[in-house]
Fold this sequence. Notes:
The chain has 302 residues and is of the alpha+beta class. Helix content is 35%, strand content 25%. It has helices spanning 21-90, 98-108, 117-120, 149-152, 282-297; strands spanning 124-129, 133-140, 144-147, 158-161, 167-169, 171-176, 181-185, 206-211, 219-230, 239-242, 254-256, 262-269, 277-281. The chain is elongated, with a radius of gyration of 36 Å.
Amino acid sequence: MTVQRYKTYKSPVKQTTGLKTHHKIMIGSFTTIVVIYMIVNAILLNGVFVKQTLNNDNLNSKVNELQADTQTKLNQLTDTLMKTNTELNSLGSQMGSIDEEFAMLKASTSADFSGIIEDAIKGVVTIRTNIGQGTGFIINQEGYLITNAHVLSGGNIVQAITYDQQTHGAELIGYDANLDVALLKISGEYNKLKLANSDKVQIGEKVIAIGNPLGLQFSVSEGIVSAVNREGPNGLDYYIQTDAALNPGNSGGPLINKKGEVIGINNFKIGSSESLGFALESNYIKEVVNEISMQALNQTLV
Length: 302
C-alpha cells in the first residue's frame, strides 16, 4: 500500500515592526509642546480677560463717583440759591421775588394762560434725588404727587421742593415702569392740579408745559397739541404730541390746557428737537395712579 504524504501549506506571515524608540520620543515631545502651548495660551487669555474686567469695573466705579459728585454739587448749589433767594425776599428785595417771577411767566405766555399760571404753579414741585432732578405735580390735597419713574431711577433719597421753596422728604408709594409713572407722598396739605378728560383733547388747542428744574426758576413753555394717541417707546398709543418746548427738568411735569387742567404728564422728546415732545394722556394717568394707590393704600386718589 502506497502512503501519500501531503505537505502542510504555511501561509506567509507578515511581521509587523513597532515604532522605533526615537520616533516615540519625537511624538511624545511634540504632544507635550502642544499641550504646554495650549495651557500657556489659556493662562494668557484668562489674564487678559481678568485685566479687562478689572479695568471696566474701575471705569464704571469712576463714572458713578463722578455722577454722584456732580449731583451732590448741583444739590448744594440748589440749596445755596434757595437760601439766598429766601434772604433776599426777607429783606424786601425785588430780585428773585415770587411775584416778579409770576409776572415774567405771565408775560412770556399768551393771554390764554396769564390768569392760569399763578394757580397752576402752586401745584408743581421739583423732584430731587441724590443722582438727578426732575419735576412733579400734586394730584391730591393730602400731599400725593406724581412724576416720571425714570426721574427716581438709581436714587435712594427723594425730596420734593414745593413752590414756596420748602424741601420735604418724599415717600415712594409705588410706580409703573411701563407707563413711567411714580406716586409719591409728602406731608402737609397743598393745592392740587385737576386731571382733565384727555378724550376731549383737540389737535391744535393751546397748552403750556411747566417745569421746575432747580426749585427756584420756574420754566414755562407754550405750544399746541400736535397729535393725540401717539405711540410711545412702550408700544402703546397713549401719548399727546406737543410742540411746547420740553426743557431739562421738565420730565414729570404737567402739560396744562387753557382751563388750567392737566391733560398729560411730560414724558419724553425725540432727540434734540424742541418741537417733538410727548406726554402721557391724563386718562391713563388716572388709571395707573389708582391702580398703584389701590395696591398700596387700598383706596383711589383721583
